């Protein structure tokens, strides 16, 4: 999975960290997930224990988007075959499909191809009747990969606004609150287009706490946020958004635009949503590998959030406690965490939250036989071609220079020079961040 694994796997601790990270990403891949959770039994489509009689429907349409949508569609085609009439998914990791059209878009900043693909999805949904079944594949990354600018807005308006939100260090919930109110598909509006068809959402969650309203900005989920909430976020971060976006949000707050769809709207009465994989899927798989290799695993949390460089210091502190006191576990051990950290961008460099986590950890770490790995499970961390990084106490020689790079949000080149970057390419999935810290035992090899 990782480029230059032979170089990265310098010690047994490095090798175990790589194995844990690989297992976590693989466990959340749509092929393995759908094989476990979706099957045909006669004329019954069974999804996580729920059953749907496919004889009741004239057509089965597959619509959706996100980092994992292409691979999920491929797995669904393997399961349903010719029962799928047609479909469209937008992804940045395209798959070879026979029944579903796969359109390649860009992430994390949306592009024109994604916009055109999203419009096609909405047009397909509008053709659905009460006798149709729509399977909506909604995965992490869908907020960027399913752009459909509302009314007079242009794609460039969404691009600029997304960039501003990312640079400001806004949380994913805040980012999506704004994006929902600039879109014709988010905030439940795909369900609005598909009504009165039956909609079954299959979710690969990249959101802390599995708030389905936030995954891909909730195309098939009710939304409780408002234009007023979106304006509050813009004001809080003092965002330099386009005038057209400011005007749209202001007019929406004044009641001139329809709000996103709430549960009480009745639009979701015939909508079922199933979370097939999430961050804990990856964490559990990493934990299994650690235990198999004789290390006691501790899953700290799948809800970690905050500034990446500060979160790293907390993780190093816990590692030091483990090494010093055996609390909460005695070495050899593996600490595992997930969730989603953020970066408030002050500089003009290259990198991402997982790389900043790793470099910050490298500046703090002074434990022998300890390795820290951090990746974004979709293989794309920030604005570069790396999933994250793998470090130990000896990774950084020039700590003042590394600290300057961190303060300037320019960590990629520093980690690249030390051969610490983890590169996977597109992984076919996205269930948020995965971090592992391998702490060797007292008798472990140096």
UniProtKB/TrEMBL annotation:
Q: Domain named MOFRL-associated: which ranges?
A: 17-249
Annotated Gene Ontology cellular component terms:
cytoplasm
Q: Which GO terms describe its molecular function?
A: glycerate kinase activity
Q: Where is the MOFRL domain?
A: 334-433
InterPro entries associated with the record: GK-like_C_sf (IPR037035), GK_N_sf (IPR038614), MOFRL (IPR007835), MOFRL_assoc_dom (IPR025286), MOFRL_protein (IPR039760)
Organism superkingdom: Archaea
Q: Which Pfam families match?
A: DUF4147, MOFRL
In Swiss-Prot or TrEMBL terms, this protein is called DUF4147 domain-containing protein
Provide the species name.
Haloarcula nitratireducens
């Amino acid at each position: 999975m990782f480029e230059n694994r032979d170089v990265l796997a310098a010690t047994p601790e490095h090798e175990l960290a790589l194995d844990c990270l690989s297992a976590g990403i693989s466990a959340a891949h749509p092929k393995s997930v759908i094989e476990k959770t979706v099957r045909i039994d006669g004329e019954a489509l069974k999804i996580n224990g729920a059953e749907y009689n496919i004889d009741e429907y004239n057509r089965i349409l597959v619509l959706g988007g996100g980092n994992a949508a292409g691979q999920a569609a491929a797995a669904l085609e393997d399961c349903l075959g010719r029962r799928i009439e047609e479909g469209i998914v937008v992804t940045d990791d395209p798959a070879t499909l026979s029944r579903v059209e796969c359109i390649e878009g860009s992430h994390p900043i949306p592009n024109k191809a994604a916009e055109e693909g999203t419009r096609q999805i909405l047009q397909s949904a509008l053709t659905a009747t009460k006798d149709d079944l729509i399977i909506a594949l909604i995965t992490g990354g869908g907020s960027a990969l399913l752009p459909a600018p509302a009314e007079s807005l242009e794609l460039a308006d969404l691009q600029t606004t997304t960039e501003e939100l990312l640079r400001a260090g806004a949380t994913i919930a805040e980012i999506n609150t704004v994006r929902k109110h600039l879109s014709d598909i988010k905030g439940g509006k795909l369900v609005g287009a598909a009504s009165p068809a039956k909609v079954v959402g299959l979710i690969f969650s990249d959101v802390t706490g599995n708030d389905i309203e936030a995954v891909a900005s909730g195309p098939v989920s009710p939304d409780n946020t408002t234009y007023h909430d979106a304006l509050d976020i813009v004001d809080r971060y003092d965002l330099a958004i386009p005038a057209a976006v400011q005007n749209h949000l202001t007019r929406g707050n004044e009641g001139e635009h329809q709000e996103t769809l709430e549960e009480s709207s009745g639009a979701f009465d015939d909508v079922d949503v199933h979370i097939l994989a999430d961050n804990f899927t990856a964490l559990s798989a990493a934990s299994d590998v650690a235990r198999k290799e004789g290390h006691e695993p501790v899953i700290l949390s799948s809800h970690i959030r905050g500034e990446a460089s500060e979160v790293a210091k907390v993780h190093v502190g816990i590692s030091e406690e483990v090494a010093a006191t055996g609390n909460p576990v005695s070495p050899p051990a593996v600490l595992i965490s997930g969730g989603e950290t953020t970066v408030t961008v002050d500089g003009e460099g290259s990198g991402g939250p997982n790389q900043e986590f790793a470099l910050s950890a490298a500046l703090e770490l002074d434990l022998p036989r300890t390795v820290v790995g951090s990746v974004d499970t979709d293989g794309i961390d920030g604005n570069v071609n790396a999933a994250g990084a793998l470090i130990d106490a000896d990774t950084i020689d020039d700590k003042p220079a590394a600290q300057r790079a961190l303060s300037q949000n320019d960590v990629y080149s520093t980690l690249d020079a030390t051969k610490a970057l983890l590169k996977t390419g597109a992984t076919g999935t996205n269930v948020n961040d995965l971090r592992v810290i391998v702490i060797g035992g007292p008798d472990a090899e140096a």
